[in-house]
Structure formats: C-alpha cells, structure tokens
Amino acid sequence: MTRHSRGRPAPIQLEFDDVLSAEGGVGRDAFESLFPRLMALRDEVGRVDVELWQSGAEIPAEKQPLDAGFIPLPETILGEYRSQRDSSELGRILQVASQLSEMVDRVVVLGIGGSYMGARALMDACCPPYYNELSPGERAGRPKLYFEGNNVDNDATAGLLHLLGDDNRNPDWAIVVISKSGGTMETAVALRQFVRALQEAGLSGSALAERVIPVTGASGKLADLATSLGCPERFRVPEGVGGRFSVLSPVGLLPAAILGLDVVALLEGAAAMNQRFLQADPEDNPVLQYVALGHLMEQLRGATIRVTNVWSKALESLGLWYDQLLAESLGKQELGATPLTAVNTRDLHSRAQQHQEGRLDKFHTHVVVENWRTDPLPVGVIGPNDDQLDALAEVTLPEIMAAAIEGTRQAYRDAGRPGCVLRLPEIHEYTMGQVFQFWMLATVVEGRLLGINPYGQPGVEAYKRNMKRVLEG
Length: 473
Ligand code: PA5
Fold this sequence. Notes:
This protein has helices at 17-21, 28-33, 35-55, 73-84, 89-103, 117-126, 154-164, 185-200, 205-209, 221-229, 250-258, 263-279, 286-301, 316-330, 352-357, 397-414, 429-450, 461-472; strands at residues 13-15, 106-110, 144-148, 173-179, 212-216, 235-236, 305-310, 338-343, 362-371, 419-426. With 473 residues, it is α/β, with parallel strands linked by helices. It has two domains: 13-55 and 265-458, Rossmann fold (3-Layer(aba) Sandwich); 70-261, Glucose-6-phosphate isomerase like protein, domain 1 (Rossmann fold, 3-Layer(aba) Sandwich), CATH 3.40.50.10490. A five-stranded mixed beta sheet has the order 1-10-9-7-8, with helices on both faces. Strand 2, helix 6 and strand 3 form a beta-alpha-beta unit. The protein starts with 12 loop residues before the first strand and ends with a helix. Bound molecules: 5-phosphoarabinonic acid (PA5). 5-phosphoarabinonic acid binds at residues 112-115, 179-181, 184, 187, 242-244, 328, 457.
C-alpha cells in the first residue's frame, strides 16, 4: 500500500563528516579555507549574473553564453501562477495536461538531452513503479507516458509505433515534442515518424494538430512546423535557460503535469533551495558545501570521477540527469569531473569491486531516501528454510537496505574512500525540486570555480557537423 506524505517533507540534507575527518578525505581546514572564495562565487552566480541577464545589457564575451535564467525561474513561474492562475503559463500547462488526459490514454514525449532527461527523472522518481502497466484507475485517469526521439534507434522507434497501433483508426495517443533549438536531428526525425503514424491512422487538419504539442524556442524549425500544422497549443522554452537547466520550465513541467504530478510542490522545492543557496552561511549551505567537497576531492585526492550512488531504483534517471548536467557543463578545456551513476544495491554486484579496490580516483555521493512510500515488506516465511533466512523473517526490505548502505559506507571509509550523503526525507515532488536546483546551482558555481563557462556545449557541435556531411554524401 502506498503512503502519501501530508504537507511538504523536511528539507534535503547533505552530510559529509566522513569526507572531512576520515583517511582519504580533504580535512576541515582545506574545506573551510574555500569558504571566502565560494561566498564570492555565490554572489557572482546568484546575484551579479542573474541581474546582468535580467538587465538585457550586452553580455561580456567571456560570459557568453549566460543562461542564468534558470535561477529565478521557479519563483517567476510560481508568482505568475499565484497572481494570474489559469492565464499564467503554469495554469495553461495544467489545463492542457488535463485536456490531454481526457482526450488520450497515451502520450509520446519526444526530446533528447536536456529536453528529455529531467522529465524522465520526474516520471521514474514520482510515479509508481511500472506506471505504464497500471490500470487507468490506478493512474488516476492520467495517460501512460513513453519517451522517444532520444536516439535514432530503428527497433525502438518501430517497437513503440507498433505498440501504439499504427494501423489503428482511432488512435488514443498524442505527441509532446520538446526541442529548444527546434532543429535537433533525433527529435525532428522522430516527430516525422509519429506524426505520420497519426496521419496513417486517419487524423488530419485540426484533429491532427491538437494531438501535437510543441515545447520549443520562440523561433526555429519546430516553431515553424507547429505553425504549418496549426498546433493550437504550444509552450516556450524560456530565453536564457539552457537545455540541461530547463527541467523546471515547460520542458519538465508539461510532462510532469500530464502525469498528474504536483508541479507546484516541485517549483516550491526549487525555490526553497534557492533561498538556502542565497542566504545560508557556508557552514549551513549545502550547495556551497557540495562544491567544496567535489572540488577538493579532485584537487587534493585526484578524485576525477564523481560517483552518484542512488539507493533507490526510482532515482536512476535522476542520477543520469545529473550525469548529463555535470558532463556537458564542466567537461570543457580538459577539465571537469567525470560523472557516473550507480544504482545500489544493484551495482554493488557490478561496480563495487572497483569502487572498493580500484583506482583512488572517485568521489562518492550516496543519495539515500529515508522513508519509502510503501509499507515495509518483511522477508517472511515460506516453509522450507534451505536459504536459511528464517532468522531474518521479521526483518524488512528497508532494514536490509539500511544495513547495505551502512555496510558499504563503512567499507569505503575503511578503504580510504569516504563519501558524502545527500539525504532525501522521501521521494516527493518538493524533494525533487530541491535536488534539481541544488545540483544545477552547484554545477554553475563549480564551473566558475574552475574558470569554465558552465553554460553552452560547444563540443557537441563537431559530431553534428560530421553527421550532416555524411548524410549529405
Ligand atoms: O543541455 C543541452 O543544451 C543539450 O543537452 C540539449 O538539451 C540537447 O542537445 C537537445 O537540444 P534541443 O532541445 O535544442 O533539441
């Protein structure tokens, strides 16, 4: 049985005593000596850059691109929603989401990179496991959600088209297509496949157009296509918000609202993290602390690999979202830690050997959920005791998980590989909002600390140019 939290869960916490005191860590002196620099960077990232971006003044060359718009975004969207309700952007998102729920039973979300990973993280974290397998009633009447356009994998695309029933004369599905630039090959090619399937199922004109909801920039190929198709509803990726920083814009909010998630709580969580970042002293500021730990582990201990150990299956996509954020933001000028998500206990049986005894080049963050959403399952009794588990019959899965976490942390600590813990009171939209904003802010501060512009991803263009040349023969 699922338990629902009443009200907002407690704030997320970062715990890191091990990294300051254990062998292989960084020591308190080094940690605290970074505080003045981090305070200055907080001012630069959280105030100076935001004001510069908001002013509309010319951005100095060394700061271009400056996508600081993600920082005030949660407060902006919430403020408009509170004052304008249905006519605000969030109000419109909620209306379109509920119209879609009435119109169709399945939605295909097309997008890649920052136009995909945040929505995926939200679905996997906040919806029940096996969500798409549940009955309409168990889904509270909300559509199933599928993600495509995040690859050019023929079999995967064909498989989803088959599932949707491409010869069905009454298609019960719609498309949300997300691309900030509007010109990304994977997304654009997928859009053609799925629009054609709707056409082949007999839809055209306004009946087709209302099944395609674009989320894109003010102009571009997708915006033009939406106009040609006559799409009645469309949403904008805001100016000054980079793809991998856009989860709290319509890019993540629309899919989340379609799933019936509490998008207000999501934004409130992010706003709460903004407050902590902007107001708390370093001793009490998880964003600045996380930056200091990662940076010092890299500088002093050669920990160039940053392992995010998520201790819940539901958080794997969140880990992958952070992998993209860190890799695309800081992987520049031959700098930036290499991210890696491990899902435990699963990956204790695949990666842990290396994490325990391999190269001393890793910094571990353990993302730990305090309260599970469902009642604890005991090991139980089945009659025979050949597996010798009767002694643990009363022990529950959460208790076994807690033992695995403690045992792993102890083993890593004993091996001179201390890690920090990002503690989530529970998986909830409010918690996810905090975590998203926490990691986005930390990544930008860390970029500035390294002397890297965390915004933009110039290196991704090279493969696109080559691919275009190959296709054009
Ligand atoms: O973070 C980024 O900017 C990228 O990962 C983009 O999100 C990704 O390349 C997709 O781009 P677009 O939304 O323009 O299709």
